[in-house]
Amino acid sequence: GITLRNTARYSHSDQAYIFTLPDDSQGNVRGTAATNPTTGAAGTRGDVLTGGYVWRRGNTRYGYSESLIDQTDLSGTFDTGGIKHSFAVGAEVAWEKTRRGTLVSANGSTVNPRCNTATIARYYCASLFNPNPSDPWVNYTSDTSSIATPIVRGASNTETQNDATTIGLYGFDSITLLPQLILNLGARYDRFKSSVTLPFAAGGNATKLSRKDELFNWQAGLVFKPTSETSLYASYATAATPPNALLGEGREDNALPTTATPANLAILDALKVQKTKSYEVGAKGSLFHEQLQLGIAVFQTDISNARVQIDANTVGFLGKTRIRGVELTASGTILPGWTVFGGYTYLDPKVIDGGNSALTAAANGRAAAQTVYVPSVNTGKQVPQTAQHSFTATTNYELVKGLQIGGSAIYMGRQYGGYADNRTATQTTAGVVTITPATTILSRGIPDYWRFDARASYAVTPNLELSVNAQNLTDKVYFTQTYASHFANIAAGRTVFGTITAKF
Q: Which H helix or E strand runs over 105?
């Protein structure tokens, strides 16, 4: 009754890309002046300040990641008196490494303001109202050079490397106290150590920053079964995300510093583990002799210690988000040969505390320029990348023995990637700062969407099945994820693929 299992996995992946994004953060879209300058250096450059253009910001990257993970599990059942235990304990050891750099290409990032006669001629800036995707862009050795050059990788000393090791121990026990009452308990301990090797000047020496975090998380749940076809449950669980958990990859909002300034070294010591608490209660039931299963769950997830900016040299961990929601699910057989599966989720995702945002008050007479901090525009807003409404429904019907057809309908509500406003700071000659309230709040997001899929399969023999899947039947253009920095993932168009499944 006891099973010992060991799983080891090694992986290596490479990535390289270059693409441009329409960047609306440089003032070229709305404009920063009513007229364009005609005199001085700005007039000579032909600066465009009245808007109507967008900077084609270049985004480049190359790198690789690899990992080696080994996991050992011991599971089984045993009795203590009249109480039955179903347990699983185990250990995990993991090593991960990422290394990345950027490709060397000119895109106008050193020009300010971004759009002028030369940068428009080089296609660094595009007309907002009449863009040409076939513009013949050419790479130069710099934004102001006239010497064309191939795109190459940056020197190895400009690359960033992240390393991490994890040692984890965990245990879980499902305890049947009574036939109608089950107690679930679980706990996990992790020791996570990560480091970042920073870029350095040619001929110099690399600097490495590292830290170690010890994490303990646990969960508890109680299941009560009033009848053989119904159950009520309640659960509580904690989770923790240590700094540099993603090794600086993806949407890493709590990474290790990437420069070794005194301020960043202080931040390194101040980093904290982001903590999550989850509460859930729900009910499940079966109808028609267990042919149709229904479920409802009400839950709340609180995230604390989120990393937020206090001032230029200080990172705080007062950031908080709260997500409350309800989920309805249904699955099973409603008629012979006709199965359904689906669910609806409503979320109330809210940023409780988003930290501060920096504003610069320009110099005025004897008063030097200074930076002031105001509450973040994110506070009180919908949590980024989290939709309020989502729905999915899948059905499958057996026309004749072995031949099945089905389809899915998927809905995802509007998602936001981030927020910005136009608050400004000014100061008197005595250094007294005044904050001008926002007149515009910018919400970067993607609209809601529906997607429809279809599927057909035929079992040639009990061991051989042929199937055809069609996704996004209507060939709808929609986005699946959005970010704060002018970027969203576009979904694939209509996709059809076939599968042959053979069992031995």
A: none
Q: How crowded is residue 124: how many other Cβ atoms within 10 Å of its Cβ? A: 25
Helices assigned H by DSSP within 253-388: 262-270
Q: Output the pTM of the full model.
A: 0.81
- What are the beta bridge partners of residue 366? none
The more confident residue out of 239 and 1 is 239
pLDDT at 316 over 70: no
**Cα torsion for 230, 232, 233, 234, to the nearest 10°?**
170
Residue reference for tokens 């729900």: 282
- What pLDDT does 354 receive? 86
DSSP character string of 187-231: EEEEEEEEEEEPP--TTS---EEEEEEEEEEEEEEEEEEEETTEE
CA-to-CA distance for 86 and 322, rounded, in angstroms? 33
d(CA 267, CA 484): 23
* Alpha helices (H) along 369-483: none
Residue 467 has pLDDT above 90, yes or no: yes
Alpha carbon distance 350, 354 (integer Å): 10
Distance, CA of 142 to CA of 135 (rounded, Å): 19
Q: Could you read off the pLDDT of 112-133 as tens digits, one per residue?
A: 999 999 999 999 999 999 999 8
DSSP string, 115-157: -SHHHHHTTSEEESSS--TT-----BSSSS---B---EEPPGG
pLDDT band at 175 (very low <50, low <70, confident <90, very high): very high
Cβ–Cβ < 8 Å for 431, 367: yes
Asked if omega into 113 is within 30° of 0 (cis), the reply is: yes
Residue 259 phi/psi, 5° resolution? -140, 150
**Residue found by looking up tokens 């994110």 in the block:** 378
Q: How many CB atoms lie within 10 A of CB 105?
A: 18
Confidence band for 209, pLDDT divided at 50, 70 and 90: very high
- CA 89 from chain center: how many Å? 30
AA identity, residue 196: V
